[in-house]
Structures are given as C-alpha cells and as structure tokens.
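Now for my pick.
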Amino acid sequence: MRDLFLPVLLGTPRKNRQSEHAAKWVAAKLAGRTGVETQFFDVRDFDLPRDHYGTEIGERFPEWRDAIVRADGLVIVTPEYNHGYPGALKSVLDLLLKEYIHKAVAFVGVSAGPWGGTRVIEAMVPMVRELGLAVSFSDLNFPGVASKFDSEGNLLDAAYEHRVTGFIDELVWMSTTLRWGRENVPSRFHTI
C-alpha cells in the first residue's frame, strides 16, 4: 500500500504572519510520520487570477492541481481574521473542484487571541463541504500563537506534541478510509 499523501496549505499571505510557524511545524510532524508523505503549499506562491475562475483555471496551477489529484487528504492552516478566513485562501481553494471530492480535510486554526481559530474553522466547514471535502473532527488550535513558538519557529508549548498526534491519527484514519472508498466503491465522482 502506498503512503498517504497529505499536503499542507498555509492560508494567508500577510507579512509577519504567526501562522507560518504553526504550518511548518505541522508539516514537519506529517513528514516525520511513517506512511505519510506531504508537500507544503503557501498561498503567497500563487499568482491568483483577478478576472476569471472557470473550469480550466486549475490548468494554470499544475503543481497544486496535481498534488490535490494525488492527495488523500489536506491540512489547511488558517488564521482567523475578523471571525473569517483570508480571501487568498478561498481563492486558492476555488482553483479546483472535482479534485477534492471524497478526500479528508483537517484544520489548524491560529489566532492572536484566546479562541485559537475556532471561529474561522466553523466558517470554513460549510465551504469545504461544498467542495466535496470530508472534515475531520480533530482540529488543532493555536490560541495566542505568538506565545507558542519562538522567533525561529521552535515550539515552546510541549502540550502540542500530544495534541498533534491525535490530530494526525484522525486525519490518517479518515484519509485511509476515504481512499479505500474511492478505490472500491462506485461513485459518480470517480471510477474504480
């Protein structure tokens, strides 16, 4: 059985973003997990269209398209901006559609305040469901994110070592189960 492929998407292009430390830390944890392969994507690296989103738009982003076609699941790391998600994150997700169907998605929420991105995750659930993604129930939240990592991105709160294990365990289970389903159960969205 091939390794699970679980890309990580960092969802904000802002300068001095604190979520970058969390995203890179989670990506490193995934990369260190036996049976998992990952790839890091950053919304900053996408030259997003300003005037057209059509069915062929994914062709302009072959690395992203190919990664999502191959993916068994996806990790989205997003800060909470005014109780919502960054527009650039939504724009990147909108580049594709059918490629997401019946794949797992797990959220890492980040905030400067005490909620740890809980509200942004709640705002994203209906949107990613419309894309066809299946949401994990194990989120990873970083409230007061500036106190969780040093300036070099080193984790300062050891409690997250345990939390990330449960987060990845659930994503691996969902991704494995959904991959089996895509490969063994007929659907109008994929062939077996």
Notes: The chain has a mean pLDDT of 94. The longest strand covers residues 103-110. Residues 181 and 187 are 9 Å apart (CA to CA). Strands lie at 4-5, 8-10, 36-37, 40-42, 73-79, 103-110, 133-135, 140-142.
